[in-house]
Amino acid sequence: MELALADLDSAKKYLSNLKSKAKSGPTIALEQEIKLFERIIEALNDGQAIRDLPLTYDEKKLIKTLNFLTGKPMMVVLNIDEVCDAKQPVPQLNFNGPIIEISAKIEAELADLSSVEAKEFLISIGQNQTGLDKLILACYKLLNLITFLTSGPMESRAWTVARGAKAPQAAGVIHSDFEKGFIRAEVCDYNDFISLGGWPKMKESGKMRLEGKDYVMRDGDVVFFHVGN
Questions:
Q1: C-alpha gyration radius of the chain
Q2: To 10 degrees, the CA torsion angle through 167, 168, 173, 177?
Q3: CATH 3.10.20.30 domain locations along the chain
Q4: Residues in contact with 199: Cβ distance below 8 Å, sequence separation at least 6, in sequence order
Q5: Each residue of 90-149: pLDDT tens digit?
Q6: CATH class of the 2-71 domain in this structure
Q7: Which of 27, 105, 113, 133 could form a disulfide with 118 if both were Cys (CB 3.0 to 4.6 A apart)?
Q8: Is 129 exposed, middle or buried (CB count within 10 Å of its CB: 0-12, 13-18, 19+)?
Q9: Which residues contact residue 222 at a Cβ distance below 8 angstroms, ignoring those fewer than 6 apart?
Q10: What does the alpha-carbon distance between residue 100 and residue 78 come to, in Å, rounded to a whole number?
Q11: What percent of the chain has a predicted confidence (pLDDT) above 70?
Q12: What's the pLDDT score for residue 86?
């Protein structure tokens, strides 16, 4: 409710400014924006979150700079007992988004263990993933993100990009000039890259691919970008 009230206040102020502009020179674009914010205010007054409104791509672009709190993706994280009883009733939540169950006590214990000890501990309690890992993966899915990697003699590094991004856009995440000067990309799967021990063996194996500007990035791609001046 507090988030909705904050959004309502911002929307009303913005609408007031739009109507002031319209008095000095109304345009079709301005009238459409006024109608959009009137719809947003009506929805907020009815207790509806902005994230649940059926907004078009262009409408989402119009409201992006306002950073509406109820327009942001949302998930629920439940702090559960160390050992969940199968008969234990699941809380009934009026929420349609992802719900992640995590035991804060188990996570605290894992934080004090080495990676080997943590893996053994997870196996002993019948889990293959930490709560933190589950949370990160759920966040990436909710935000529609993927990870690609770059690897060279000095370092290997992970980068985040929106799902559906093409190779030049991914190169632009590293440096804006890379997107402008993109020529091609050497791409391979992460698992192949690890099992074969890096780029030299990847090239010999034939599993490395040369991709152009229309290549859509995949989660777990390892990439070497070729960029011109």
A1: 24
A2: 150
A3: 145-227
A4: 151, 186, 193, 208, 224
A5: 566 667 788 898 999 999 999 999 989 999 999 998 888 999 999 999 999 999 999 999
A6: mainly alpha
A7: 113
A8: exposed
A9: 148, 149, 150, 151, 187, 188, 189, 190, 193
A10: 6
A11: 94
A12: 43
Distance CA 132, CA 103 (A): 10
Fold classified for 145-227: Ubiquitin-like (UB roll) (3.10.20)
pLDDT tens digit sequence for 51-85: 989 999 889 889 999 999 999 999 999 998 876 54
Amino acid at 160: T
Cα 129 to chain centroid distance, Å, stands at 20
Region(s) of the chain under CATH 1.10.150.300: 2-71
Tokens of 80: 């559960």
**Which pair of structure tokens corresponds to residue 146?**
């993927």
Read off the tokens for 112: 């004090």
Confidence (pTM): 0.72
